[in-house]
Amino acid sequence: MNFNRMWAMARKETIQVRRDPLSLALAFFMPVMLLFIFGYAITVDVDRLPTIVYDRDMSSMSREVVRGLQASGYFTVVEYVRGPARIDAALDEGSARVAISFPEDFSKYARTGKPVPLQVIVDGSDSNTATIALGYLNQALEIAARRAGLSSVPPAIDVRPRVWYNPELKSRNFIVPGLIAVIMAIIAALLTSLTIAREWERGTMEQIISTPVKPAEIIVGKLIPYFAIGIIDTVMSIVIVVFLFGVPLKGSFFLLMFISSLFMFGGLSLGTLISIATKSQLASSQLSVITSYLPALLLSGFMFSILNMPIPLQVITRFIPARYFVSALKGIFLKGNTAGMLIGDMGLLALFGVLVFVISIKKFKKQVT
């Protein structure tokens, strides 16, 4: 490879990007916009669930339990109803997600020391919210019962759980780092998927072919500006994740940037390969979304646990580089993993990048077809 010819291609591509406002907006504004949208919109935390109460006991104990539920922050009592018919109506119309019904002899049962009956109805149309709400409800009711003087006999086993890495169980802490992988996947593939195809559509590829520049020099020269843009986007994303969303970065920043560079190289090479194969900007952009964004969003472990997927899908995820990048991101951000712990992820990301890059060079032919 000739460095001067490669650098000339890089300068040409840089000038072309600078003169294209749409590409600049796509390169710098889109990652920030996606990070804001996904960061604030995607959450599995449940709080302030609208709750209705049907209190037939009307005792100080039942009122204390309700106050305890509201103090937890997970539930907000929006209405005290006077009959079971209103419970059905509130859940049907969606004005309430949880209903709590106290029996008439609630305080009587409490004084006897026997198990206290309490009916809880949860809207299961959103199964994820319903499952989380039930977990919060059991915890909140236990605390509220103790405050109301309804503590029962201590259990035989005193369980004291401790959560590592994300003790507050904030969904933002494990979702937002994975967003970097999803955003970088679509940006890398989408930007470079238009490079070669654009030259063919504009008729400038014939001029490049007539020069002595080699296929490898063309591809590397075109990758350099977008690699620099990707690094800038990565730094911007990390700053936003740490300082705006408050996600702790316990590991090394430089290790994070190195792994991001490996993933970026593979994504850019994939976009270049798509551009070479299709020779159409429209087809390239559509194919890049299918091959990069959707797998990174659905099959990388970014939001949905890979262990819960069917075995065939688990096998497929092993061929998706975003899986290893998401794992490395969460490890560096939340666990403070070192390079030795992530050597497998880094090796697979490097192997993917080199493999796709070599295929791109082999696929690109300096000839008009």
Helix content, binned percent: 55-70%
How many structural domains are formed by the residues? Answer: 2
Beta strand count: 4
Strand order of the largest sheet: 2-1-3-4
Largest sheet: 4 strands, mixed
Distance between the termini: 25 Å
* Low-confidence runs: none
* Strand percentage: 5-15%
Question: Which radius of gyration do the C-alpha atoms yield?
Answer: 28 Å
What is the typical, i.e. mean, pLDDT?
A: 84
Broad shape: elongated
The H-and-E topology, N to C, reads as: HHEHEHEHEHHHHHHHHHH
The total count of helices amounts to 15
Structural class: mainly alpha
Task: Give a structural overview.
With 369 residues, this protein is mainly alpha-helical. The protein has two domains: 3-42 and 170-363, no CATH class; 49-147, abc type-2 transporter like domain (abc type-2 transporter like fold). Helix content is 65%, strand content 6%. It has 15 helices and four strands. The protein has helices spanning 3-18, 21-41, 60-71, 84-93, 106-112, 127-147, 171-192, 195-202, 205-209, 215-244, 253-278, 281-298, 311-317, 321-335, 343-363; strands at residues 49-55, 75-80, 98-102, 119-122. It has a four-stranded mixed beta sheet with strand order 2-1-3-4, with helices on both faces. Strand 1, helix 3 and strand 2 form a beta-alpha-beta unit. Helix 7 (171-192) runs antiparallel to helix 10, helix 7 (171-192) packs antiparallel against helix 14 and helix 11 (253-278) runs parallel beside helix 15. The two termini are 25 Å apart.
